[in-house]
Every structure is written in C-alpha cells, then in structure tokens.
Specification:
It is a single chain. The protein starts with a strand and ends with a helix. It is elongated, with a radius of gyration of 24 Å. It is of the alpha/beta class and 396 residues long. It has two domains: 242 residues, Ribonuclease Z/Hydroxyacylglutathione hydrolase-like (Metallo-beta-lactamase, Chain A); 143 residues, 3-Layer(aba) Sandwich (Rossmann fold).
Length: 396
C-alpha cells in the first residue's frame, strides 16, 4: 500500500515482520525489517529501489494498484544487493525498456545476479536527473557503504536524501517515521546495524559524511532502505554515525566466553567481580557464546573499551564458537580496544595462547600476553587469582 511521506513522494515498500536472519544466517533481526522502496510522481515518475525477491510478485501487484507501470519514467537502483533489487526482474518484465540509473559497479552487480541486459544509465557523484516541476535528482556515490556499487539519491526542493543502507536499521514497523517508534528500540537497532555491518568502513564513512556535508544540501528527511525514515531532526543519525566512526567506545568491559564443565564460567564471574571492585564506574557485562546471539554480543564489543575472551583448551585449541567469534571480530576491524584471555585446561593448556594471538590479529591491544589460565576447575585460591586478574584488567 502506498504511503505518502512528503508532497509527491510515497513509500511503496514491504514490512517483513517475520524476518529473523539476514545475509544468510549471518545477522540476527529480532525486530524484523522493512524493504523501503519509494515512488516520486512529478512531471516524471521515478521508482527508487524495489524489495527483496521473496516479495517481488506482491510488490509488483501492489505497485500496479497504485500506478500504471508504463507511467514509470525512470528506475533508480541505489544498490544491487538482492534485498533492494530483488523485485527488479519481476518489474522489468512489465517495463523492459525503461532506463535504470545506477553506478558502474551496480551494472556489474545487477548483470551478474540477474543476467539481464536492461537499459542501464551509469551515474557518478554530482550527476543530475531532471524530473520536472523544478526538481532534480542528484546522485552521490557511496562506495563500500556497504558495497562497492552503493549510492545515495537526493531530491531537490523536497530535500530528501534517499540514503540506501546508510543510516538504516533492521526494524519492522508500520509507523514509518523515526519520531513515531520506541526510541530505545530504534537506538539499539541503529547501533547494532552500524557495529555489525558498517564498522569496517568507518574511515571511508567519515570521508563520505564530510563530502555530503560539504555539498551544503539542506536535508529535511533521510529515507533509508531499511527501518524508519528520519524526519524529526534527521541529522541526529548522521551525528551518531560521525561519533561511531571515531573508534567508538563506552566505559564498558565485556567478558565473552564459552565453557564445557563450568570451570571457565566460574573464572568469568570472578573476573567480573574483580573488575567491579577495582572500578565502580565501569559497566561489566558477561556473555556466554553458547547462550547469546553473536550479533548482539558484537554490538557490546563495539561499545566496549576492553574485551576479555575465555575458553577451555580443547584439542590443543579453543571451542569453535570462541574461534569463530574472534574471526568475526577481525572482519569488523574494531579499533582502540584492549583484550585479555582466560580459561581452564586439563592437559596441555594452549587455549590462552590461541585466544591472545587471535585477539591481537583482530587488532586488539593485549593487556597480558599470557592471560589467566587454570588447571582443572578453579578452587578458592584460583578464584581469588581470577578476582585479582579482573582488578588488573580494570586498572589497565
């Protein structure tokens, strides 16, 4: 159903309440998501992006109820990823000769995925498209935010920035606008989205934000591809991105572990106790990788100044969940964070070394090269050592 967002601009996307996983099974979406597509009806009619492929037929049918598809003059593909472009094949069957405006990399992406030779029109930053009534679309390339083919589109006079993946969040809502939803939920989904998807590109993001600001374009609304549209103080999310891009951290220490027979768990809890004794102002959080969502933990890592990782030694290494999580952190390229290792062992005890090397490889500064390791389950003396280790971490 078409929903008016401003003047002759409408939302024609899809709310996906049931979505639980995204990017395969790589990203958890506890709050669902939306696939935002926009229809501009000036002298020229423009469709900006589509929806994910499972909803392609529904999308085209709904669009046909709102407008004669032949009246669409231009299709804008801000990004070739299938959650944005998935309905293009179904749509273009009805309007095969209509031009698609996108970046050069998006042509590669769309051809590579759909194997169609549509009428592509390549645009670069600063290129404009006249849509009548004194209004233009201005294109801004956004490479690596978060694919090489990404771009944003700005509508003059209405002052709307169609930002694609930037400034979005996986958040299903019928309310549409940022000022109408639960602000705590919105904030949580925004920082989770940044931490898990955009954090590796923070340096490029800073340059792109500066470039957009340098254009001096008035922005009254930021229309994202996922989640809410920012209409009340839309620059607030830009300000948050600027802050998050600066090697972000809060006064938080996260202890992340998995345990086999609870020995490593006991160490984790005693380390937390020691941190709290040494620093009463720091926030300490514990996460068992076997029982908590990895993407939610990544969000906490993003907020943390120090991460303490623990695993028992297994097969001369660590539990696979711990190894996998260290690999996940490496890919996200977090900066300005410290780390330490801990764990129990029964025979050889290489687990701490594996964790320390993994954390160092992921860009963390080690507080203690050896970390804290304990032979078999911790006794009272070992628990006291874990408390002291926590105090050492807090003081670091």
């Amino acid at each position: 159903m078409k929903k008016l967002i401003k003047n002759n601009v409408s939302w024609v996307g899809k709310v996906d309440w049931e979505l639980l996983k995204f990017h395969g099974d790589d990203y958890s979406t506890h709050k669902g998501s939306t696939y935002n597509s926009y229809l501009i009806e000036e002298e020229k009619t423009v469709l900006i992006d589509t929806v994910w492929m499972p909803f392609a037929d529904e999308f085209v049918e709904n669009l046909q109820k709102e407008i004669d598809l032949d009246k669409i003059d231009y299709v804008i593909a801000n990004h070739g990823e299938v959650d944005h472009s998935g309905a293009l094949p179904a749509l273009m069957k009805h309007i095969p000769n209509k031009p698609i405006y996108c970046t050069a990399n998006a042509v590669k992406s769309l051809k590579g995925q759909y194997h169609q030779d549509w009428d592509f029109h390549v645009v670069k930053t600063g290129d404009k498209l006249d849509i009548g009534n004194g209004k233009e679309l201005v294109f801004v390339e956004m490479p690596m935010l978060h694919w090489p083919d990404s771009m944003a589109t700005y509508l003059t006079k209405d002052n709307i920035l169609f930002s694609n993946d930037a400034f979005g969040q996986h958040y299903a809502t019928e309310k549409l606008f940022n000022d109408l939803v639960d602000q705590c939920e919105l904030d949580n989904e925004c920082i989770k989205y940044y931490a898990n998807i955009l954090a590796p590109f923070s340096q490029m993001l800073k340059r792109k934000l500066a470039e957009i600001i340098s254009f001096g374009l008035p922005i009254d609304m930021i229309a994202t591809s996922h989640g809410v549209i920012w209409r009340q103080n839309p620059m607030q999310i830009v300000e948050k991105y600027s802050k998050w891009a600066e090697n972000y951290q809060e006064n938080q220490i996260s202890i992340i572990y998995e345990t086999m027979w609870n020995g490593t768990k006991q160490l984790a809890e005693k380390i937390a106790e020691g941190i709290a004794i040494a620093d009463k102002d720091v926030t300490v959080k514990l996460f068992n990788l076997a029982k908590k969502d990895a993407n939610d933990i990544i969000t906490e890592v993003f907020k943390s100044k120090t991460v303490v990782m623990g695993s028992p030694t297994v097969g001369n290494g660590v539990l696979h969940s711990v190894a996998g999580f260290a690999h996940l952190m490496k890919g996200l390229k977090f900066k300005n964070k410290k780390a330490a290792a801990f764990g129990c062992y029964g025979w050889s005890g290489e687990g701490n070394k594996v964790i320390s090397e993994s954390m160092k490889d992921a860009g963390f500064e080690l507080i203690d090269e050896d970390g804290l390791k304990n032979l078999w389950n911790p006794n009272e003396s070992a628990k006291e050592e874990a408390v002291k280790f926590g105090m050492k971490i807090a003081k670091a």
